[in-house]
Amino acid sequence: MTASIRRLSTRLVRVSLRRPWGPDVTDISLIEVIVEDSAGDVGYGFSWTPSIGAAAVQAHLDHDIAGFAVGRDADAESLWIPLWLHLHEGGGGGITTIAMAGLDLALWDLAARRTGVGITDHLGRRHDVAGVYGSGVNLHYPLDELVAQAERWVAAGFDAVKVKVGSPLLDDDVRRIAAVRDVIGADRDLMIDANQRWSLDQAERALDALAPFDLAWIEEPLRADDLAAHVALRDRIEVPIALGENLHTRYRFAEFIDAGVVDVVQPNIVRVGGITPFLAIASLADDRSVDLAPHLLLELSAQLALTLPGEHLVESVEDASFADLGVLAATSPVAVDGTRVRTTGQTGLGIRFTDDRADAAASADPTEES
Question: Which in 49, 78, 274, 325 has the greatest CB count within 10 A?
Fold first, then answer.
């Protein structure tokens, strides 16, 4: 008999970034979710958001999600769709799925910890290592700092790197990408990320100017919600398109894939609602022969990449892993050695946050089964 959810509680953890992602992005928020089942087993998950929305995510978990989930089976896969349908009046994605991820991850952690293995082996390991690329949130870096970052990536052994574009002046982007290509050489893959900064015409002009630098992909060239513009852009450029960090449901991924506008999908495991929908999106991409490279969250993304068929690049943002930020209570569940990332043998998700980083004013009282 499946145990039921007895208790759900949350804890807000605010973390200053060692390297700010921009003048207005200097911290991230983690909402730790603790689930206890009727057998007394405990699972730990989290929701995540940079700068915006943490209070809303935590409130959604403490009230709507806890109110629905407590007393139901402590099984992530069977709970996800009923919970999503229950919450749908408040929106099908965004805050809804970000909050849902906290519970979904906690239930998967509980299930893996109960069997005494890590989440990779619990789901079914296919690989011992995955490829990893160096990534920088660096559009605000002066050119000399950007060059220095590229030099660190080369010294660390990365054979693929990603750089931000979308400067007010296209000539500045050209100079910056030329400088990075000069540092990394011709043999390393170079990806660029516009973070939705361009219009259709701007994207076409920019990629005409940047394509000679042998780009592995252009990430989020346009507003993520505008499927029609992506269809038009596909006809105008030859650079592969990557997107997905700002798509929140399997349905949106299917729309972009079936429209033929994406070469690499990049689901963020938290933004899509956790491991359960991430695996469904990965299966969809595999069925349609579209590459997948999970977005951010190195410690979680790497563990799941090892369960998928085929090879998948994992993103390592400089100084932004949970281990680098000093928020983990134990050894990281993954280790990076330049070109590859592997697991370290932690049980469950292996992601527990230190007690001294809690925002006490935002801590929530647990909700218990009556």
Answer: 274
Q: How far is CA 257 from the centre of its chain?
A: 19
Catalytic-role residue among 60, 230, 248, 295 = 295
Taking 50 as the threshold, does the pLDDT of residue 370 lie above it? no
226 with 203: CB under 8 angstroms?
no
Q: Mean pLDDT, to the nearest integer, of 298-304? A: 98
The pair of three-digit structure tokens given for residue 162, joined into one six-digit string: 């990603």
Contacts of 250-256 with C-beta under 8 Å, sequence gap 24+, read 250/277, 250/280, 250/281, 250/284, 252/93, 253/281, 253/284, 253/285, 254/284, 255/227, 256/227, 256/230
C-alpha triplet 105, 195, 259: angle, nearest 5°: 80
Residues in the chain: 370
- Is residue 63 among the annotated active site residues? no
Instruction: Report the C-alpha gap between 249 and 279 in whole angstroms.
Output: 12
Whether the pTM exceeds 0.90: the reply is yes
Closest to 292 (Cα-Cα) out of 319, 318, 272: 272
DSSP string, 301-351: HHHHHTTSSS---EEEETT-STTTTT-BSS--SEEE-SSEEEE---SBT--
187-237 pLDDT, tens digit each: 999 999 999 999 999 999 999 999 999 999 999 999 999 999 999 999 999
Count of other CB atoms within 10 angstroms of residue 196: 17
In sequence order, what are the beta bridge partners of 181? none
Q: Among 60, 122, 164, 248, which one carries the catalytic annotation?
A: 164
Q: Are 333 and 344 in contact (CB under 8 A)?
A: yes
pLDDT for res 366: 40
Output the six-digit token pair for 366. 């647990």
Are 314 and 305 in contact by the 8 Å Cβ rule? The answer is yes
Beta carbons of 188 and 160 less than 8 angstroms apart: yes
Per-residue pLDDT reduced to its tens digit, 143-153 = 999 999 999 99
Are residues 169 and 349 in contact, defined by beta-carbon separation less than 8 angstroms?
Answer: no
- So what's the pLDDT on residue 51? 79
Tell me how crowded residue 202 is: count the other CB atoms within 10 A of its CB: 15
What confidence category does residue 357 fall into, taking pLDDT thresholds of 50, 70 and 90?
A: low
What pLDDT does 2 receive? 82
